[in-house]
Amino acid sequence: MKTLEAINYRTSYRGAYTNESVPEEDLKLILEAGLAAPSGCNTQTTSIVAVDDSLLLEKIRNIMTRPVGKTAPALIFVLAEFIPSYHGRCFAVQDYSAAIQNMLLEIVELGYESCWVEGYVNADDGIGAEIAKILELDPKYKVVCMLPVGKAAESIKRVTKKSFDERAWFNIKK
Fold first, then answer.
1. Long-range contacts of 22-25, Cβ-Cβ distance < 8 Å, separation of 24 or more
2. Cα–Cα distance list, 10 to 95, 96, 111, 115, 159 (Å)
3. Torsional class of 61: left (φ above 0), alpha (ψ -120 to 50), beta (otherwise)
């Protein structure tokens, strides 16, 4: 698959997953793609945890209040350290966003589905903090995103994007 094909094929899959496991080698490739993302001032504020252990998955599923990702055979959690760098600015959001996009594209390349689940694990309801406790994370990390990974058990609905001309142009728009 060429890069632009993967970009255009990728979609947010919120359905159920089959119970087919995701091999550790594939999870490693996905994590490597995330870690290869650019980082503001090379601060490297993003860390990533792949969870495929059935006991950990069960503990996490027990605290999940929404169905997205509940049946995924693997969950990837994106962690951020909010470290100031250039003139006191922190680029953690940009760093982890780039890492997430890289991982989503690698997930598609490997034949899996996923969804960028940020607001749910990053909200004030404490789900991210509960996940951090289950994963015994150092307090310097904040759980900012979850990527369920697996094979789709339901049909995949692809969204229609606005046309190129509606959203992009060269020089001055006419």
1. 22/52, 22/73, 22/74, 22/112, 22/149, 22/150, 24/52
2. 20, 18, 10, 9, 10
3. alpha
Q: How much is the pTM? A: 0.94
Please count the other Cβ atoms lying within 10 Å of the Cβ belonging to residue 99. Answer: 26
Question: How many residues appear in the chain?
Answer: 174
Query: What pLDDT tens digit does each residue of the chain (174 aa) get?
Result: 688 988 988 999 999 999 999 999 999 999 999 999 999 999 999 999 999 999 999 999 999 988 899 999 999 999 999 999 888 899 999 999 999 999 999 999 999 999 999 988 887 778 999 999 999 999 999 999 999 999 999 999 888 899 999 999 999 887
**Where would I find the beta strands (DSSP E) of 122-172?**
142-149
The answer to whether 92 touches 45, Cβ cutoff 8 Å, is: yes
Q: Distances in Å between the alpha carbon of 127 and those of 45, 116, 146, 149?
A: 21, 16, 11, 19
Show Cβ contacts of residue 127 under 8 Å, excluding neighbours closer than 6 positions.
Answer: 63, 64, 65, 120, 121
